[in-house]
């Protein structure tokens, strides 16, 4: 059996994406080229690997077996390449990175000029989305996520941390006044999260200014997108709880004002770079993560 590695790699993406057209779009090639690759691979194996129907594609029993071996073959090849070239060649190639839109806009985008100066042969493909992406299906090399990792199938490296505090725009405060105590918030327009209830539990400090615990917030405006929350606060719509590392540059320019810092707690939340187990040793992956860990340390 003589297999072409590129055909094997393309087959795994067809299986993960579910359609020939999706695999063709990802590679920016005609569907006919993907079809020829699949036919060549099936001919080399002597079996049909995929069922084709009007409802889409599905793996045959032989295809399911082949997919498991194909992934192991590609993983081994990638590790071997990294071992042989990692000490000699500079990190190079495309790295697809998934993260929330607000992290992409406020953290990763400003960091790229420095990353490219340090590693000029790298190319970054940013997938900005608040949802938790299926890394294998969507071809994500690195997912930057906040909070504790919950996957046993991914490799996690902590690259930083952050806290959240309340902020408002000067225009909002001029119009509605500045709250002096958490009890004052009931008279203000608050911006909350519509999909993560934990983000609407604002922690109170224990001590001379309060009894501790959480302040459950309902809000007059809700959104499921952290970047939209930031924009709403900047536009003077209301008071919102934002990541301090994102808000700090805006405070420095006078675009935002921190609120109730003596009353509300700001616990540290870890930031992780999540990687597929078979890819975390690749030089281009390590180079990006090392750089962003240093970048976040400088922003802290």
Sketch the topology as an H/E string, one letter per element. Answer: HHHEEHEHEHEEEHEEEEEEHEHEEH
Number of helices: 10
CATH class of the largest domain: Alpha Beta
Number of domains: 3
Strand order in space, largest sheet: 4-3-5-16-6
- Structural class call reads alpha/beta
Q: What is the first-to-last residue Cα distance? A: 54 Å
Query: Quick one: how many beta strands?
Result: 16
**Which second-level CATH architecture of the largest domain applies?**
3-Layer(aba) Sandwich
Average of per-residue pLDDT values: 87
Tell me roughly what share of residues is in helical segments.
40-55%
CA-atom Rg in angstroms:
24 Å
User: Regions with pLDDT < 50 over 5+ consecutive residues?
Assistant: none
What do we call the CATH homologous superfamily of the largest domain? Periplasmic binding protein-like II
The CATH topology of the largest domain is given as D-Maltodextrin-Binding Protein, domain 2
What is the strand content?
A: 15-25%
**Biggest beta sheet attributes:** 5 strands, mixed
- Global geometry: elongated
